[in-house]
From TrEMBL:
Gene: Tmed3
Gene3D superfamilies membership: GOLD domain
Annotated InterPro entries: Emp24-like (IPR015720), GOLD_dom (IPR009038), GOLD_dom_sf (IPR036598)
Transmembrane segments: 189-211
Protein name according to UniProt: TMED3 protein
Keyword Signal listed: yes
Coiled coil: none
Keyword annotations: Endoplasmic reticulum, Membrane, Signal, Transmembrane, Transmembrane helix
Length: 227
C-alpha cells in the first residue's frame, strides 16, 4: 500500500513538473514575441525618409541601422526630439547604434537621408527597440525566492535564443551586402567582357582591311597621247 501511494505521489510530482515546464515554455514564447520594430526599406538617390514614434518621458530606446546595398554603403541619419532639437546626427555612416533615454514626452523623429548621392540607390535596415525587455517569468523582479531548475533553464534558453536571433540578423545583413557586392562585380565583369569583345572585333576588322590593302594591286592610270 505504501509503495502504491509513493508511486502515485511520484507520478503526480512528474505531472506537476511537466505542467510547470509547459507553463514556463508558454511564458518563454510570449516573451519572445515582445520586441521593437525592424524594417528594411528602399532609399532612392537625392531622397530622404523619416519615421515618427510617440514616446513617454524617461523611456529608453535604441536605434540600430545599417546600409545593405548601394553606393559606398553609407547614409546620413539624425534623430530629433518633440521640441525639434537634434539629439543625434551622423553623416555618411555605414552602420551605427544610438541608445537614448527620453527627456520629454512626445513624437520623436528619426530620418535617413541619401540627398548627398545623385545616382546611388540605397537599401537601409534599421531596428528600433523601445523600453526594457519584460521579465521572462511573472514577478521575476519582485520575487525573493531562488529560481527553480526549470525556471533557470528557461531563462538560459531565452538568453541563448536572443543571442541566436541577433546573430542571424547580423549574418543575414552581411549575406545581403555580400550578395549585392557580388552582383555588382558580376555586372562590371560582364560589361568589361562585352567591351573587350567589341574592341577585339574592331581590331580584327582593322587588321583584315590593312592586310587586304597590302596585297591589293594598284592599277596604273592608263593614258596615251596620239601622235
Amino acid at each position: 500500500g505504501m509503495r502504491g501511494r509513493s508511486g502515485m505521489r511520484g507520478r503526480s510530482g512528474m505531472r506537476a513538473a511537466v505542467r510547470a515546464g509547459v507553463r514556463a515554455l508558454a511564458v518563454l514564447l510570449c516573451a519572445l514575441r515582445a520586441g521593437g520594430t525592424e524594417l528594411t526599406f528602399e532609399l532612392p538617390d537625392s531622397d530622404k525618409q523619416c519615421f515618427h514614434q510617440e514616446l513617454e518621458r524617461g523611456l529608453k530606446f535604441t536605434l540600430d541601422y545599417q546600409v545593405i546595398t548601394g553606393g559606398h554603403y553609407d547614409v546620413d541619419c539624425y534623430v530629433e526630439d518633440p521640441n525639434g532639437r537634434t539629439i543625434y546626427k551622423e553623416t555618411k555612416k555605414q552602420y551605427d547604434s544610438f541608445p537614448h533615454r527620453t527627456e520629454v514626452q512626445g513624437v520623436y523623429t528619426f530620418c535617413f537621408s541619401n540627398e548627398f548621392s545623385t545616382f546611388s540607390h540605397k537599401t537601409v535596415y534599421f531596428d528600433f527597440q523601445v523600453g526594457n525587455e519584460p521579465p521572462i517569468l511573472p514577478d521575476m523582479s519582485n520575487r525573493v525566492t531562488a529560481l527553480t531548475q526549470m525556471e533557470s533553464a528557461c531563462v538560459t534558453i531565452h538568453e541563448a535564443l536572443n543571442t541566436v536571433i541577433d546573430s542571424q540578423t547580423h549574418y543575414r545583413l552581411r549575406e545581403a551586402q555580400d550578395r549585392s557586392r557580388a552582383e555588382d562585380l558580376n555586372g562590371r565583369v560582364s560589361y568589361w567582357s562585352v567591351g573587350e569583345t567589341l574592341i577585339l572585333f574592331v581590331v580584327s576588322i582593322g587588321q583584315v582591311m590593312l592586310l587586304k590593302s597590302f596585297f591589293t594591286e594598284k592599277r596604273p592610270s592608263s593614258g596615251g597621247a596620239g601622235t
